[in-house]
Amino acid sequence: MRVRRGGWKRRRRRIFAGFLLIMVALIVLFIVVERRVEPTLMLIAQAKAEQVAKLAITDAVTKRMSQQGLDVNEVVLMEKDENGSIKAVNFNFKEYSRIVGETTARIQNRLKEFEQEHVQTTIPLGLATKNVFLEHLGPDIPVSFVPIGAVKTKLETGLKQAGINMVLVTVYIHVEVDLRVIIPFATKQQTVTTQIPVSEALIVGKVPTYLYDNPSGKPDVPMPRNNEIPSQP
C-alpha cells in the first residue's frame, strides 16, 4: 500500500508539472503572437475607424448643407483692383462663425450617436498575418472608437484657374477630430482629418491683351544671336 501511495503522488506531481508547463508555454505563445500581431491589427483598426468616422462626418455635413445650403457670395468676400482682377479673398466672419458653429455641433452630435449606439466594425484575425490564403480566416476582432475632446472645424478656400479669364473658387469645410481606437487588447489615439467641398463659384475676369502659356518656360520667338543683333547707327 505504501508503494502505491508513493507512486500515485509521483504521478500526480508529474501531471501537475506537465499541466503547468503547458500553461506556461501557452502564455509565452500568446505573448509572442500578440506582440507580432497587435501592431498590424492596430494599423488595420485605425484605417477602419478613420473610414467610419469620415462617413459620420460627411453625413453630418451633407445633411447640414442640404437643409440650409451655403452661398459663396455670402461667405467669401473678394477684393478686386481697378481692372477687375481679384486682389484678395476674405471671409465674411459673421457667416463664417455661424456655419462653423452649426457644422461643429452637428458633427459632435453624430459622433455621439455612434458612441451611444456602440457602432463598431470587425476585422478577421487572419488579416494580420499578411497572408493571402489566411486573411479571411480566424475570429472577427471588434473595432470601435470613442471621440476625444471637441471637434475642430474651419472653412477654407481654394482657387483654381478655369480659363484665360476665369477662376473657380471652392469653399471647403475642414474637420479635425481626435479618436481613441479600441480593440480587445489595445487602444490608441488617432487624429482624423477630412476636407469636404460644400460650394463653388466661377469668377469671370477681364480678358488679357496678351497671353503667354509655354510649359517649357522658353520663349516662343527665338532670340537673335549676338552677331545677328543689328548695330546701332
How does this model look, in words?
- It is elongated, with a radius of gyration of 32 Å.
- It has three helices and six strands, in the order H-H-E-E-H-E-E-E-E.
- The chain has 233 residues and is of the alpha+beta class.
- The model has no long low-confidence stretch (mean pLDDT 76).
- The protein has one domain.
Rounded to an integer in angstroms, the radius of gyration calculated over CA atoms is 32 Å
Number of helices: 3
Compressed to H and E, one letter per element, the order equals: HHEEHEEEE
Shape, please?
Answer: elongated
Count of beta strands: 6
Strand order of the largest sheet: 3-4-5-6
Q: Compute the average pLDDT.
A: 76
Low-confidence stretches: none
Strand percentage, roughly? 25-35%
The secondary-structure class comes to alpha+beta
Question: Into which percent range does the helicity of residues fall?
Answer: 40-55%
Short description, anyone?
The protein is α+β, with helices and mostly antiparallel strands and 233 residues long.
What order do the helices and strands come in, and which of them pair?
Elements (H helix, E strand, L loop, with lengths): L1 H67 L3 H4 E5 L5 E6 L1 H24 L4 E4 L15 E22 L4 E18 L2 E19 L29
Antiparallel strand pairs: 1-2, 3-4, 4-5, 5-6
Helix pairs in contact: 1-3
